[in-house]
Amino acid sequence: SLPGFPPSPAPRHNPIMSMARTTSEELIPRDVLFGNPENTSPILSPDGNYLAYLAPSPDGVMNIFVRDLNNQATNGDAKANDRQITDDKKRAIRSLSWAYDNKSIFFMQDKAGDENFHLYVTDALPTESVDENGVPLARDLTPGDNVKASTIITNHRYPDEILIGTNERDPQIFDIYRCNYQTGEKVLDTLNPGDVVGWGAEDDSFTIRSATVKNPMDSSSTVRIRDSIDAEFKDVFHFPYGEEGGLLDFCADGGKTGYLRSTIGRDTSALLKVDLATGETLEEIFSNDQADIGGVTLDKDTKEVRAVTYNYARTERVFMDQDLEADYNFLMTQLPNPNCEIGVSSRSLDETKWIISMLRSDGPTEYMIYDKPNKAVTPLFVSNPKLLPYKFSQMEDVRIPAHDGMELVGYLTRSVTEGPSPIVLLVHGGPWARDYFGFNPSAQWFANRGYATLQVNFRGSTGYGKSFLHKGDKQWGVGDMQHDLTSAVNWAIEQGIADPDNVCIYGGSYGGYACLAGLTFTPELYKCGVDVVGPSNIKTLLDSIPDYWKPIRNDMLLKIGDVDGDEEFNRKISPLFHVDSIKAPLLIGQGANDPRVKQAEADQIAFTMKEKGIPCEYVLYPDEGHGFARPENRIDFNGRVEKFLAEHLGGRAEEFDEVEGATAQFPLLEKAAAAM
């Protein structure tokens, strides 16, 4: 049995396991699926001469490496000459960007999952300022306890300066500072009057010219514009609660016009060109009736729109730039199969060199270098080559009718080619977010162990217009958001995909809440549940949010419901008050340093279930926050999940051994031991 878990019987024989699998016959190891990738997040220096990327250090922690593209190894080991330029010993670095001096790299890091991210800069090229291992010494540009860096703005016209938003003056709001990252000198640039939740800079002057304001009373948003850094901000665009929109960028006319995303007068968002003095719409550039606009590609100099994406079920592109379209059409010919999607990870400043990502749902991401002038594509590396020997299931995008007939987009990963199997309903977090098509390690893991996986964009998910988003308002737990999940399970059963007697609900953050709600409000539907960092009492959740979330607290109340003023409503939607309804066993995973969903949310429902004799297993990681960033803890928790699912759904399970470096604690067992 697993450490901290009681012994359990061997998995039951499940006859469907003898059917044709969609994945490898052998068990794909958890450390292959959930360990560190070997290479990820490649990004070119602005001059195109260097490549930076994330990879495991000798200590097994994701750090930043740099490759000189003009001095690459020729001995068959492409990484032989690459240099490690950061050396975090404990927690992975997860993002990086080049400075426009072509010599420095920025990255963000927090402490043990507390999400107080600081902005650091380090030398990408050889330097004398190194540690005892020869790794450059990173410099913290946003020092201080409980300081969080937010908005980071760079500009190729001002290569030695950046604009940084931090909450060092007031923990609830972010002021903008102008920083010379070479010297570390930082001066206050724009003071937050108290209601600004987002900032925007105009490129030519590199000054803050726009501010997005959230009204704490009615949760409306306003975009304020100023003509110069010395001028006063003026309200120009207003979005009442229920409308979605914001300024994307300034045009190259001194900031007289700009690009706005807006749902006003329509359901899905449109890309508009607008007059920034009058607010008048000058041109509707693009919209789609089914989905909001997604990414917008602008020319860095002319600011002309080159392409727009949207995503109903899969990413779609609309081109305004024929040259860019020709590049994408050429790159599509380089794909091994039509089920792949192309992404652009990085471009040099002159756009002669690109880093291309080839994305597919049944294998790891592959990166390539595109030499645009010569129309040549050369392989760079595979994100996780350890996955290549294995067969994975093709994800399917599906349409699911909700109980009231509304169409829901979902993603299905089958475990067997035909007939029903046990199923995991994998619920996304947010909830104001969405699931996407692509390779999902959890879905592939479940499929390989014998469980179909269904993900669904329930109402309240983003990307489908304001009506779909706000149909989730006040629908947590016992309303339509949860009903959509029930409809998805029933659809899978009716389609012959899911075994109705073996359904698990699994999710993190809001998905963890949905798991708890599913077990309490529809207990007959689920055989078991897995809750990762999910809230159990919505009132205590909102009472303990970080200071910098407080300006949007009222917005959350309008979406969730008035748990402040209506105690009965809070009790109605909070699973903690309905523990007696739970019939299925529950596994909880929690990070002790989670600033969003505090440990108390897990403690209170786990201990209540324990007191009532309802099966609950609870694993706490003292060095994690909102999710499990350290691979040791991720692999450890998933080993416990795998045993739990095998016991209750009857699938396969890889043998579990203690994971070296994992920090799992077991509060329920520790309390029981202390009471003895």
Brief digest:
With 676 residues, the protein is of the alpha+beta class. It is built from twelve helices and 35 strands.
Give the secondary structure arrangement, pairings included.
Elements: H1 30-34, E1 40-44, E2 50-56, E3 62-68, E4 83-84, E5 96-98, E6 104-109, E7 118-123, E8 139-140, E9 149-153, E10 161-166, E11 175-180, E12 185-190, E13 196-202, E14 207-214, E15 221-225, E16 234-239, E17 245-250, E18 257-262, E19 270-275, E20 281-287, E21 293-298, E22 305-311, E23 315-319, H2 322-332, E24 341-347, E25 353-359, E26 366-371, E27 376-382, E28 395-401, E29 407-413, E30 421-427, H3 441-449, E31 452-456, H4 466-470, H5 480-494, E32 498-508, H6 510-521, E33 528-532, H7 538-543, H8 553-560, H9 567-573, E34 586-591, H10 599-611, E35 616-621, H11 631-649, H12 667-675
Parallel strand pairs: 30-31, 30-32, 32-33, 33-34, 34-35
Antiparallel strand pairs: 1-2, 2-3, 3-4, 5-6, 6-7, 7-8, 9-10, 10-11, 11-12, 13-14, 14-15, 15-16, 17-18, 18-19, 19-20, 21-22, 22-23, 24-25, 25-26, 26-27, 28-29, 29-31
Overall description:
The protein has 676 residues and is an alpha+beta fold. It is 18% helix and 31% strand. Strand 28 and strand 29 form a beta hairpin. The longest helix has 19 residues. It is globular and about 65 Å long. The protein starts with 29 loop residues before the first helix and ends with a helix.
